[in-house]
UniProtKB/TrEMBL annotation:
It comes from Flavobacterium pectinovorum. GO terms for cellular component: cytosol; glycine cleavage complex. The gene is gcvP. Its cofactor is pyridoxal 5'-phosphate. GO terms for molecular function: glycine binding; glycine dehydrogenase (decarboxylating) activity; pyridoxal phosphate binding. This is Glycine dehydrogenase (decarboxylating). Residues 9-435, 454-727 form the Glycine cleavage system P-protein N-terminal domain. It is an enzyme of class 1 (oxidoreductase). The modification N6-(pyridoxal phosphate)lysine is found at K700.
């Protein structure tokens, strides 16, 4: 028997465990279990048509070879992406460390204080550099962050501007091209009219509710926008800035100029370009807009002992709650990358950032002066890192590429050159030589950077930033290494124990899949580099698209969306374009079952659709009669149905074929939310159930790590009808024949992490993938069998089987005074992260073990929950002082001299035997959410600042 197959490493249960597991479930074989789980009429008849699986070693060689087809040229392209130096301790201790990259979104604050602090550092960095009052924990990229800024200003316009009937948004022509394309996509369906123009000739007409400026402009021009903002204010027009984060260490902040919102990317803070992503965008605004702010915010609060404790703030403003009233659908963001960027600021500190900004600026000025000597005219009147020069683009391009250098060629005689942290004197001399050769002139060299500045005197930054200790005490490697370790130790990640997040599929993120991310040939390519230089990437991305086509049964895939929710939006926009192309643009009704994930209605609202919610039956299935009624009632303007399959309740509904047919018969298309694809791969697929489009969460089903809340990749896969409408990019043409405008900034979204899913599929192969699905179903049903008699399971299929996840009903424990949240906190004492709490049904836990967990780990988790069940039994309705209510228990509690709880220390911390040898200590006691929301603080403030008086 072969033992080198990757599937054997990825899938948890061992061959020898199978009999016991099957017997516990009460089936003869996995085949029988699958037969009882999945309706017959949707079963795939043939194996997936994929290449034979590679071993890990074969894949390592393959990806190395393929990487050689990417040409790493010196990049001066700019446009929001810059070469950067990833500090080695950050690369080794965060980027390549499963303690950081396998963490879940920090909903369980007591076991997430490390990354919460790291994100707080990120927020502080953003707040102080932009000069704003509040910032969020990251967004997907600069372009979509700009669209979120537009949406926020549109949302608040009626509140304090009394601009009920204004719908015009001014966009400076200095905006990055990809940002403009996204603004076009996002404005149209919600009725915003974009007006692109020159900010100096803008007429400040009353019809505008807002404006967005680029600072510095797309080709480097630095403008003083103070007068613009002041004039806008007089006319009740709110101004957003898209700003370069590094430039803000040298330039007056947008906040000081009166900005209402500031967005941008933090890529150049030590996050590799990766052919477009992933990178953390930032979003900063004024305190008064905090309730309209997209994404998540980390805030400071206290635990039950009054100690400082961090947690996600203002939970009630999440899209899950707002649903169809949402203005944003952000769920997954870019947490891992935000952690890296925040740590870059910690490592360099204010002086380091000023030094880097100064050096980058000096490189630009030095090059401009040298080129001037050659007779090359530089046209920006003031600039930070980018110069715009006049020269024969064709000639320069040929010579530059021969020298492995990329500039950005604006037109036939204009070239933009963007400098960065890696630029050396030798690089500047190479640039001089390239232009000299193009002009047929004698070249010369410079030997040092100039001291002169081309920043306008009026815009030189005078305000201080990053004065907090954390940014000033971690500048040696020992300090930063220990600081990162200190934070990491506070967090429970997949390298400690299973994280059974229902719907979120926290499976193994294998090291073999992750390794290529560190290779320069993969991570150092600019997304707008000439495609000939990215042959390795194009080959890999096309191959991944084909693999996903095969897996979903569809005809085309775009990898552009950077999250599942963004995939939803892309899919709905493709559906919209399809109806428009058939002169049926009036079709805008979107049917959504009430059990849907909150992002579904939020995405539909952003796509300008009218949302009709349909009922679910008491068994948790779609109420087909209600759906039929509504589909028929709206048949003249039906756009689509959004359906999750298997359902959000973890059941393969047998009526799915009838449901999709019903929608088609009434002129609509079917959008399948593919978050639960882990129960389908190799057994059935969206095309077979009759869907027209689905998104996949590569960060769930296809092994990209969760990163503590991102990165994500949410490709959409579509049938022939929708292929023509897949999104494009304004600089590198991708997508369909009648492509919609951009969904995200980079042509292929977060291309770097697509390597992970490519690796996963390539090493698993058809058989391995199918086996993974079967084992995911096996593990879920094994746990379900173990819970029998202890916890009621909500909703199962017709044969009493779960699919890949199950819901434990905890509502009746109210009689014992126990809430589902108490169980979640008590699980920490047992060394486990809670499953999904109160989704899709309030008062329940949704458990998804995935195929990666082995029998022993499943048993430990089941033992823990069963033991907790006994503790619940011992609790009474008005008992406020017991082992559940006081959970989690910290080491500090256990080791104080006085112990006055009505149970032993051992029961508190070591309730089961397995715990002792691998104890995980929560670092704070239970966190008070309400306190933090009343006293919202989202940056590294001193403790006095949040004491309630
Ligand atoms: C995770 C999830 C989404 C959203 O995906 P993000 O990447 O977080 O935007 C949508 N629907 C369901 C059912 C999900 O589980």
């Amino acid at each position: 028997m072969r033992t080198d197959a990757f599937a054997l490493r990825h899938i948890g249960p061992r061959e020898t465990d199978l009999q016991h597991m099957l017997k516990t479930i009460g089936v003869e074989s996995i085949e029988q279990l699958v037969y009882e789980t999945l309706p017959d009429d949707i079963r795939l008849k043939a194996p997936l048509n994929l290449d034979p699986a590679m071993t890990e070693y074969e894949f390592a060689n393959h990806i190395q070879e393929l990487g050689k087809k990417n040409k790493v040229f010196k990049s001066y392209i700019g446009l929001g992406y810059h070469p950067t130096i990833v500090p080695a301790p950050i690369q080794r201790n965060i980027f390549e460390n499963p303690g950081w990259y396998t963490a879940y979104t920090p909903y369980q604050a007591e076991i997430a204080q490390g990354r919460l602090e790291a994100i707080l550092n990120f927020q502080t960095t953003v707040i102080e550099l932009t000069g704003m009052e509040i910032a969020n924990a990251s967004l997907l990229d600069e372009g979509t962050a700009a669209a979120e800024a537009m949406a926020l200003l549109f949302d608040v316009r009626t509140r304090d501007q009394k601009k009920n009937n204004t719908n015009k948004f001014f966009v400076s022509e200095e905006i990055l091209p990809q940002t403009l394309s996204i603004l076009q996509t996002r404005s149209t369906p919600i009725g915003i009219e974009l007006v692109v123009g020159n900010h100096e000739t803008f007429d400040f007409s009353n019809e505008f509710f807002g404006a967005i400026l680029q600072y510095p402009g797309k080709y480097g021009q630095v403008n003083d926008y103070s007068a613009f903002v002041a004039k806008a204010k007089e006319n009740e027009i709110k101004v957003a800035f898209a700003a370069d984060i590094l430039s803000l260490a040298a330039l007056t902040s947008p906040g000081e100029m009166g900005a209402a919102v500031v967005v941008g990317t933090t890529q150049r803070f030590g996050v590799p370009m990766g052919y477009g992503g992933p990178h953390a965008a930032f979003f900063a605004t004024k305190d008064e807009y905090k309730r309209s702010m997209p994404g998540r915010i980390i805030g400071v609060s206290i635990d039950v002992n009054g100690n400082r404790a961090l947690r996600m703030a203002l939970g009630t403003r999440e899209q899950h709650i707002k649903r169809e009233k949402a203005t944003s659908n952000i769920c997954t963001a870019q947490v891992l990358l935000a952690v890296m960027a925040g740590m870059y600021a910690v490592y360099h500190g204010p002086k380091g950032l000023q030094y880097i900004a100064g050096k980058v600026h000096a490189s630009a000025v030095t090059a401009a002066e040298a080129l001037n000597k050659l007779g090359v005219y530089q046209t920006n009147t003031a600039y930070f890192d980018t110069i715009l020069v006049k020269a024969d683009a064709q000639k320069v391009k040929a010579i530059a590429e021969k020298n492995e250098v990329n500039f950005f060629y604006v037109d036939a005689d204009t070239i933009s050159i963007s400098f960065n942290e890696t630029t050396s004197i030798a690089d500047i001399n190479q640039i001089i030589a390239i232009f000299a050769e193009a002009l047929g002139k004698e070249s010369f060299t410079v030997s040092e950077l100039t001291a002169s500045s081309q920043l306008p005197a009026s815009l030189e930054r005078t305000s201080s930033f990053l004065t907090h200790d954390v940014f000033n005490n971690h500048h040696s490697e020992s300090q930063i290494m220990r600081y990162i370790k200190k934070l990491e130790r506070k967090d429970l990640s997949l390298n400690h124990s299973m994280i059974s997040l229902g719907s979120c599929t926290m499976k193994l993120n294998a090291a073999s899949e992750m390794l290529p991310l560190s290779m320069p040939n993969w991570n150092s390519i600019h997304p707008f580099a000439p495609v000939e230089q990215a042959e390795g990437y194009i080959t890999m991305l096309k191959k991944l698209e084909e693999q996903l086509n095969v897996i979903t049964g569809f005809a085309g895939t775009t990898l552009q969306p950077n999250s599942g929710a963004q995939g939803e939006y892309a899919g709905l926009m493709a559906i919209r374009a399809y109806h428009l192309s058939r002169n049926e643009g009036h079709r805008n009704v979107c049917l959504i079952p009430s059990s849907a994930h909150g992002t579904n209605p939020a995405s539909a609202a952003m796509a300008g659709m009218k949302i009709i919610v349909t009922k679910t039956t008491p068994e948790g299935n779609i109420d087909v009669e209600d759906l039929r009624e509504k589909a028929i009632e709206h048949k003249d303007d039906l756009s689509c149905l959004m359906v999750t399959y298997p359902s959000t309740h973890g059941v393969f509904e047998s009526s799915i074929i009838e449901i999709t047919k019903l929608i088609h018969d009434n002129g609509g298309l079917v959008y399948m939310d593919g978050a639960n694809m882990n129960a389908q791969v190799g057994l059935t697929n969206p095309a077979t159930i009759g869907a027209d489009v689905c998104h996949l969460n590569l960060h769930k089903t296809f092994a990209i790590p969760h990163g503590g809340g991102g990165p994500g990749v949410g490709p959409i896969c579509v049938n022939e009808k929708l292929v023509p409408f897949l999104p494009t990019n304004p600089i590198l043409k991708v997508g369909g024949e009648q492509a919609i405008t951009a969904i995200s900034s980079a042509p292929y979204g977060s291309a770097l992490v697509c390597l992970i899913s490519y690796g996963y599929i390539t090493m698993m192969g058809a058989e391995g993938l199918k086996s993974a699905t079967e084992h995911a179903i096996l593990n879920a049903n094994y746990m379900k069998a173990r819970f029998e008699g202890h916890y009621p399971i909500l909703y199962t299929g017709e044969c009493g089987r779960a699919a890949h996840e199950m819901i434990l009903d905890c509502r009746s424990f109210k009689e014992n005074g126990i809430e589902v949240g108490d169980i979640a906190k008590r699980l920490m004492d047992y060394g486990f992260h809670a499953p999904t709490v109160s989704f899709p049904v309030a008062g329940t836990l949704m458990i998804e073990p995935t195929e990666s967990e082995d029998l022993a780990e499943l048993d430990r988790f089941c033992d823990a929950l069963i033991s907790i069940r006994k503790e619940i039994e011992a609790s009474t309705a008005d008992d406020k002082n017991n082992v559940l209510k006081n959970a989690p228990h910290t080491l500090a509690m256990l080791t104080t001299d006085s112990w006055d709880f009505p149970y032993t220390r051992e029961k508190a911390a070591y309730p089961l035997e397995y715990i002792a040898e691998n104890k995980f200590w929560p670092s704070v006691r239970r966190v008070d959410d309400a306190y933090g929301d009343r006293n919202l603080i989202c940056s590294c403030a001193p403790i006095e600042a949040y004491m309630e008086n």
